[in-house]
Fold:
Amino acid sequence: MKINRKDFLKQSAASSLLLTSPISFFEKTIPKVDSSKRMRFSFKPYTLELKYVFTVSTLSRTTTPVMLTEIEYDGIVGYGEASMPPYLGESHESATKFLSKVDLSKYENPFELETILSDIDSIEKGNPAAKASVDIALHDLIGKLLNQPWYNIYGVNVKNTPFTVFTIGIDKPEVVRKKMLESTDFKIIKIKLGKDNDKEMIDTVCSMTDKPITADPNQGWTDRNYAIDMINYLKEKGALYVEQPLSKDRFDDLAWLKENSPIPILADEGVQRLSDIPKAKNIYSGINIKLMKSTGMREAYKMILLAKSLGMKVMLGCMTETSCAISAASQLSPLVDWADLDGATLIKNDLFEGAKIINGKVTPSNLPGIGIKKLQKS
Amino acid sequence: MKINRKDFLKQSAASSLLLTSPISFFEKTIPKVDSSKRMRFSFKPYTLELKYVFTVSTLSRTTTPVMLTEIEYDGIVGYGEASMPPYLGESHESATKFLSKVDLSKYENPFELETILSDIDSIEKGNPAAKASVDIALHDLIGKLLNQPWYNIYGVNVKNTPFTVFTIGIDKPEVVRKKMLESTDFKIIKIKLGKDNDKEMIDTVCSMTDKPITADPNQGWTDRNYAIDMINYLKEKGALYVEQPLSKDRFDDLAWLKENSPIPILADEGVQRLSDIPKAKNIYSGINIKLMKSTGMREAYKMILLAKSLGMKVMLGCMTETSCAISAASQLSPLVDWADLDGATLIKNDLFEGAKIINGKVTPSNLPGIGIKKLQKS
Structure:
């Protein structure tokens, strides 16, 4: 008689090896998780003062509203942040409303990231920046409990941090040339495009540098034939990739562009969260992940793994943010291909010290957690 | 004049915030990483004695060759294991040859999982179990350095550990009935199918229990119409899923089955590693991940995230293994839908104490790392 292994083995194994009581055979237990302790969550609105007026179309602003969060557990504090540029729909009001519903005191174990963040995500739709502010604080707390920066927990080497881009906005040649003088410490120049002077912009930048360039038309191109001509021209000039060339709703034209482009086409507006990636695979060669879109580090990490597994390129971007959210993103940056993480250099009233631009790379500090130190009382 | 935010901001920001020297502004540095310390890797062959003869077709065996590994760093030892059932092609010889090429002394930082495991993967093709033995030991070491079990580092709750199945092999009804008497402590019954008595097997099991069942024909069905009839029958009888119904090469028929099946169809033989998943998505609803196929925990974790991101179901399986590799898998199990992790209950000479079957679930211990304790000198 042929005998199946598992079945016969189980006959004797099952009864003898089953335990009916909780595990208690080890003398050593996990430190730092004490069920009598609870996390305490708090948040307060803050307003970033921008170094220069931020102007798009008819709207000018000199500030960005952010929400600062803290999670305290056993005397250790994790810091988080939501950055909410007005055009994205979140505000001090919406974040206050959302974060008031967050109750972390019910969780026994701060390490339960999956459960906690999934619960928070299900409180209400939207609110990605508010959700990110909890995610970041929880990561900071956990990293501090583990006494390691997240790049070590992610298992990556800081040496693999990609260069961050220096961005040149749409302007007249003389202004572009002046701006280019400030770019010496950066290794890649990002050119904003999408108005009526694309070639002039490209030519002006390339007349002043041999560095690799990238382009971001911010959905500004409308004709796919014009777009592919411009992409080919950019390729000739040394461009590494192009962000969001057409409106995110132009699926067929984006698919056609991806098919015909000699360089990667990245989704920015076209991809917000993890669930957007599988369908984006057919129309983009890569994605620009931002913590304020992805609901934080947890989902951003999964987005990186998913996109890379699907053979897509990955870029990490940001909003105007303090060194809190920027440092959080910097922990993930050794996992990605390209970075645009200059948000903290654009504000006057940073509250944290953390990731710094070193040799053109936004490099995390060697502190545990997201790698920040609070500079002052906020 | 419309002014672009980033450009103007960067004019002043760039020069003032750039650092040209390494980060040195924090008084506190990361503990436990000392560049003068190095990892030491060692391995030795071992032979698992099975509790009962394992018989398939004309081949009988009473042993499984394994390779036991250790990585020592700063006085802390991480344990790993390769389990190599002969029909999968690896052996003491092949693993010795492969592992002799592994040099961990060149890495400054044991936390550099991505770099280290990617280097090891590129030493040579194949050898997934040998690669897993390094991966598991490195995870055990890192978890011990972090002083946390991996379920905490993965951010999951042990409460979410799925039930492990009790397997009933193909046999006569009277033998099946006898085996079923041993299944009382398990919550799900897995029925091996694929010979000429499928319905009899199913009926015999279901006459003795109301528990959910699953089925594993091990590529044993050849006719897709027969397969869908049987799957529909299984669904009526309460089956949760079916593993590998047809040969892994029958892409079109598997796609047709997936399309027409009322329950998930999981790939086992059809999916080995991360790169197999995107194309598997069209022909399976889920995958059975085994550490000895995936090259260890790192890639298994990514496979889980990727499969779930693609909307696929995930199961964790095993070989006959000591509590070392089983405990490693148990750390990941709260992330998956289903588990078949009884490998350590099938051997006579386990060398470790670790994950235990508690209330039908293979539950990790509360020790740091992969959660094991060595029982004796090997």
